[in-house]
Amino acid sequence: MKRLLLTLGFSVALLVTLAYAAFRFSPAVQDAVVARAVRAQMSRTNQLPLDDSALRVLLCGTSSPMPLRASAKACTLVAAGKKMFLIDIGPESTENLTLWRIPLADIEHVFLTHFHSDHIGELGEFNMQGWVQGRRVPLQVHGPDGVEQVVAGFNEAYALDRTYRNAHHDRGRGLLPLAAGAMTAQRITDLKAGEIPQGRRTVVYDRDGVVVTAIEVDHRPVTPALAYRFDYRGRSVVITGDTVFFAPLIAAIRGADVLVSEAESHHLQNLVADQVVAMGAKNLATVLRDTTDYHIDPVQAARLANEAAVSELVYTHIAPPIVAKPLEIPWLRGVSNIRAQGVRLGRDGMLITVPLDGGPIRFDQL
User: Fold this and answer.
1) Domain count, the chain
2) 31, 88, 106, 118: which one is catalytic?
3) CB-hemisphere CA count at 13 Å for 316?
């Protein structure tokens, strides 16, 4: 038996050596391996089902501005039938969508909650990637007062890029039409900058059974800041954007199947700030502490979900970042006392399926 095992081991080692030698010294073998790898990668299909059986939510970025290698910044995708919509597009989120094989060219609408960098930082890159993949109409970017300035800035920053790509790839073939590469701003005119938040609501999209309602939240000094509610064939989801606990939200989100709420653990954020100041970074510590006065706490978000009779609460924009699973315990401290069930910590790639037939809400991971 020992001799047989030695013989088998020698044979395997010899085969591995021969295979490596063939790859190392044969261009034909190298090309064949690369071609096979490319076919395997490109044959991967979109991991997001796009049928008319459910309203779906895909978390494409769940971190706060504080860096976390495994998570992109704020980004949520809502799919109603075959229509897809993005709510915010923070840094790193386009990479997630691309790796999951989401057809970026089919996403024609982005809804911005507000203009902090972690919510808009990848708008230019997402627009360019969708254009290159085949989008033939300008990306429509919806948002509150200031959206024209944001969109114009990204359009200007990417103007040379569009010119280069069009000149290189189009060459009269209509491959990358310049008109489709520049975004169009759609300002939500009913809500004005500088006004005290009152929880006002306005429908900003109503087509093919999909109704999107912008809801004013309180993220002062950012005004207006918005949440978005998506209603489709009797099911609904709400993405809060950034906000404090805001009583007018209760009526606006009442009865939603899923509430995707940002949340910052205030006591952990202050602990982080204490350690940062001890290391001499007083400026950063002050900024970290300041954030607690315009973000909702996990316990407050649980209370909001309860008072609005929401079926499922999913946390996103998680701050401070949960770098190890045991840290979920202090981050969620007190939540179970308010809401014992229907609470989940979001993470990049979480797919939430809300069946249109009234079936139970499902949670999967891409």
Assistant:
1) 1
2) 118
3) 37
